[in-house]
Design brief:
heterodimer; A: mainly alpha; Arc Repressor Mutant, subunit A; 2 domains; two-stranded antiparallel sheet; B: Rossmann fold; three-stranded antiparallel sheet; 9 helices; GntR family transcriptional regulator (chain A); DNA-binding transcription factor activity (chain A); DNA binding (chain A); DNA-binding (chain A); Tscrpt_reg_HTH_GntR (chain A)
Chain lengths: 124, 235
């Protein structure tokens, strides 16, 4: 994994792990790799992995079972909420930018659906 | 968290030349700390002082609660660049030397690390490439069980594939409560490993700064921050 230099690595690792959970590389209730394994895979210090996991545990995405390790939550609603958050964050900057161009909501919606159509065409 | 290393009021001169001045530093255990500074800024000297190789004329060094040089040596594993060995020495002979000299050296741990790095015990020192020699040095250094490891330029002149292997071995064999101080010219190579950074500039040590603080307060990477400190753009 390549890291962006000026963003704390634990945040980048958190994003990476969340993506894996949302796309079910780590499915609901599944045990996460150990801290050391993740550190090796991600070529970072164990402390950094620990820190990313700590935030995810606080958010309820990961559950710690004492003596057993870390598990992805079994609660699908939490993962769904996480996904919504990422979707919103992704649209936030685009929406703000288009708003600055004085586009109204209808125009923004139309332009986005055109954009998706163009994408589909390219894939055909 | 307890201090694994405490340096108080350290001053160090070579002849009349000041090498290190007014050094005060406290390190918590469990971290990986990058020691950054120009060539000849005093990084190697500082490591040798901490390890008890160089005597301290002025100041107090405490490692894991010990201030006596003999005890400090037992508590610190400093990478030796193997210059004291002969070109004809086999790796196995060097390993036996380490085993004889250091009580905390573990042959089993050495073998695990050496296997991971692909080291061949029968090879002679002279036959090793820079990369393989670097791997041997790291395996010997990490095979000791100490609370403090000092890695002075462990990646210097080493190709990127060997570099990645060496970095992996550091991640894999670092105990949670042991501390590593690592120096390198190319900050980027070790950047993802570091919890905190210490910069030596003009014979003095700047405050220890957490890497996350560099990223969130200055919006900079370690290398850019380091350069700005050196150029005086960050006071």
């Amino acid at each position: 994994m390549e890291y962006i230099e000026n963003i704390p690595i634990y945040l980048q690792i958190k994003d990476y792990l969340e993506e894996k959970i949302i796309t079910e590389s780590y499915s609901l209730g599944e045990q996460m790799p150990s801290v050391r394994q993740l550190a090796l895979e991600l070529a970072v210090n164990s402390n950094t992995v620990q820190k990313a996991l700590k935030v995810m545990i606080e958010e309820g995405v990961i559950i710690t079972l004492r003596g057993k390790g870390n598990f992805v939550t079994e609660n699908a609603a939490i993962v769904e909420e996480l996904k919504n958050q990422i979707v919103n964050e992704t649209f936030d900057s685009a929406y703000d930018k288009l708003h600055l161009l004085k586009m109204d909501n209808q125009e923004i919606t139309n332009s986005f659906s055109n954009y998706v159509k163009q994408k589909e065409k390219k894939l055909e | 968290m307890s201090n694994v290393l405490k340096i108080e009021e350290l001053n160090y001169k070579k002849g009349s030349k000041i090498i290190l001045e007014d050094v005060n530093l406290k390190l918590d255990s469990g971290k990986i700390i990058g020691l950054l500074g120009e060539n000849s800024a005093g990084k190697t000297t500082l490591m040798r002082i901490i390890a008890g190789v160089n005597s301290v004329p002025e100041g107090v060094i405490t490692v894991n609660g010990n201030t006596k040089k003999v005890l400090i040596k037992e508590n610190v594993s400093l990478n030796d660049h193997l210059d004291g060995f002969k070109a004809t020495n086999k790796i196995s002979e060097i390993v036996h030397f380490y085993d004889a000299v250091y009580q905390d050296f573990s042959i089993t741990k050495y073998e695990d690390i050496a296997n991971f790095l692909g080291l061949d015990m029968t090879k002679k020192l002279a036959a090793l490439s820079t990369g393989t020699r670097g791997k041997l040095v790291i395996a010997l250094t990490l095979a000791r069980s100490t609370k403090l490891y000092l890695l002075d330029e462990p990646l210097s002149g080493i190709d990127s594939i060997s570099r990645k292997k060496i970095i992996s071995s550091i991640i894999r064999w670092k105990d949670d409560d042991s501390t590593i101080i690592i120096s390198d010219h190319y900050v980027t190579a070790i950047a993802s490993l570091l919890d905190e950074v210490v910069i030596i500039k003009n014979q003095k040590i700047r405050d220890l700064i957490p890497v996350e603080q560099i990223q969130s307060d200055y919006h900079l990477g370690i290398e850019a921050y380091y350069e700005k400190v050196y150029l005086g753009e960050i006071q």
